[in-house]
User: Which sequence fits this backbone?
């Protein structure tokens, strides 16, 4: 009965506070209900040997009322844990008679905890209100029931080996802190995950026939455990803290108050137009996400700028607002409105400025020699001066966005299973940030099917030589990187000559060149077991320039090539 009274008192206090908050801020108040389920990991500090406590199910609900970035909430949580007897039960012997103790019975009752509490809420809302991060703090009461554990030997000793009386505690003062992250996939519905820490203070154990806990002393030897005729008993109920941490997931339902606005026959209308502009080039910025917030941080309206960098908010109520913008994850400089700036039947004009000095790479990843975009490519921008890199994934059309610093030199490549990526050198000094914000870059990737030959560009050798020239290293580095990005594949590198020279000479020269290419790739950290080199001499010409045929130098050059192909078992 005392627990019920405390619960009613807490509910009345919570409801009264919410009503006062609602009357103070009628436009921005909202109520949310968040049921959840999860897993609780307890610590019972009762100092009882040979009894542990297992994790268990938790289920709960939070009812929160927000009227700005803070609010008030009520939590109810039901938690169930289970005790675990860890007294040795294998190879037990009586220390007096020496008889084996085999007729054992064990009872373990689950522990339930019911918590209810209230306290303040604090939240952070993302620019457009779809992500909420909340800190919930609660103080209240809990009831803790169960947990009786008994291990008994029924034949030889006919006595208890291990015992704990459990709990039957009510109105236990309890504190709880909870972090929760919610993603709202619509205006009123979201999903959340989170974690909590809960502590129950001065929880009293139960007493059973004047005993709270007891166990028989035992000694271990080579045969097993020898139970002694010594009973350790605690006759006073221990008061101690119980704590737990937990994780959970659930749904969030947001309920907003509906207000009826009394309007004259012909209502006054107000509008707000926001233009997004680059600070240095003056360029108007399409696709900029814009949010209009009140002074408490609540999102009033959101939109995205059109091709002219403008978004218009019609039928907006004149007020003091903060206008924020976000372009490809970079925040624009905020601006604000004053209620007195709005004029009936006119559109208030405001600008938000993009002041970041980085370039924005607007790129495409395509299949080589086509305009076909490649989705799901991991595009990597690597600084060649310092060990830094950025990456992003291409969308369904093969498009990607990356930010490029004004200083440094970079390489750009893509990673996609079984695709051989072009590597592009990027030098920001080729661009002027005061003249250019967007840099257009395209990378191509060629599908490396089993057995499909892909020509390696710029793998050139001096006349009658087979050592690797400096101008061939970038392409071989690209091959090495491809093999590192795809550790499950093996590669054959093949070298080919034109028809000039004897067959045996061309065969030997091409084998030496293929072996030199393999040695270089292995020197870049690729296991030799994954790559082989084969010289084909003039046996695989790509045109009709065979022996005794008259061909131009350009035609012969087509046949002098180095190729790679994926070897499939």
Assistant:
């Amino acid at each position: 009965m005392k627990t019920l009274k405390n619960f009613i008192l807490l509910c009345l206090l919570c409801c009264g506070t919410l009503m006062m908050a609602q009357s103070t801020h009628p436009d921005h108040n909202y109520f949310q209900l968040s049921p959840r389920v999860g897993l609780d990991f307890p610590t019972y500090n009762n100092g009882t040997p040979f009894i542990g406590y297992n994790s268990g199910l938790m289920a709960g609900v939070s009812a929160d009322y927000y009227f700005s970035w803070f609010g008030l909430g009520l939590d109810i949580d039901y938690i169930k844990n289970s005790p675990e007897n860890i007294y040795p039960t294998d190879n037990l012997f009586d220390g007096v008679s020496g008889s084996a103790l085999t007729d054992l019975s064990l009872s373990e009752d689950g522990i339930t905890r019911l918590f209810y509490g209230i306290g303040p809420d604090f939240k952070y809302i993302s620019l457009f209100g779809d992500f909420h991060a909340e800190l919930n703090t609660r103080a209240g009461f809990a009831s803790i029931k169960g947990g009786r554990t008994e291990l008994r030997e029924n034949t030889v000793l006919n006595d208890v080996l291990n015992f704990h009386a459990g709990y039957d505690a009510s109105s236990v003062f309890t504190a709880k802190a909870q972090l929760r992250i919610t993603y709202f996939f619509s205006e009123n519905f979201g999903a959340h995950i989170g974690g909590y820490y809960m502590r129950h203070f001065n929880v009293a154990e139960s007493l059973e026939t004047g005993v709270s806990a007891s166990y028989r002393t035992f000694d271990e030897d080579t045969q097993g455990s020898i139970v002694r005729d010594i009973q350790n008993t605690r006759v006073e109920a221990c008061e101690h803290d119980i704590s737990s941490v937990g994780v959970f997931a659930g749904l969030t339902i947001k309920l907003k108050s509906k207000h009826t606005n009394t309007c004259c026959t012909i209502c006054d209308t107000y509008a707000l137009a926001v233009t997004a502009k680059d600070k240095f080039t003056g360029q108007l910025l399409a696709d900029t996400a814009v949010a209009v917030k009140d002074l408490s941080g609540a999102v009033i309206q959101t939109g995205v700028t059109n091709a002219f960098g403008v978004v218009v908010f019609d039928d907006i109520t004149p007020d003091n607002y903060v206008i924020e913008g976000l372009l490809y994850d970079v925040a624009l400089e905020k601006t604000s409105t004053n209620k007195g700036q709005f004029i009936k039947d006119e559109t208030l004009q405001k600008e938000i400025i993009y002041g970041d000095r980085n370039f924005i790479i607007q790129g495409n990843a395509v299949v080589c020699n086509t305009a076909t975009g490649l989705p799901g490519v991991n595009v990597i921008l690597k600084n060649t001066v310092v060990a830094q890199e950025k990456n992003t994934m291409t969308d369904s059309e093969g498009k990607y966005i990356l930010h490029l610093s004004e200083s440094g030199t970079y390489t750009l490549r893509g990673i996609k299973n079984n695709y051989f990526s072009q590597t592009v050198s990027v030098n920001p000094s080729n661009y002027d940030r005061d003249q250019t914000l967007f840099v257009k870059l395209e990378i191509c990737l060629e599908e490396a099917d089993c057995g499909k030959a892909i020509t390696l560009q710029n793998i050139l050798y001096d006349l009658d030589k087979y050592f690797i020239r400096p101008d061939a290293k970038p392409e071989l580095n690209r091959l090495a990187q491809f093999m590192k990005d795809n550790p499950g594949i093996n590669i054959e590198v093949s070298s080919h000559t034109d028809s000039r020279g004897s067959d045996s000479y061309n065969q030997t020269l091409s084998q030496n060149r293929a072996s030199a290419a393999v040695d270089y790739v292995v020197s870049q950290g690729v296991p030799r077991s994954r790559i082989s080199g084969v010289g084909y001499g003039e046996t695989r010409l790509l045109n009709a320039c065979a022996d005794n045929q008259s061909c131009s130098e350009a035609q012969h050059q087509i046949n002098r090539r180095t190729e790679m192909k994926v070897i499939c078992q």
User: Anything to note?
Assistant: Residues 2-24 form the longest helix (23 residues). The two ends are 75 Å apart (CA to CA). DSSP finds four helices and 35 strands in the chain.
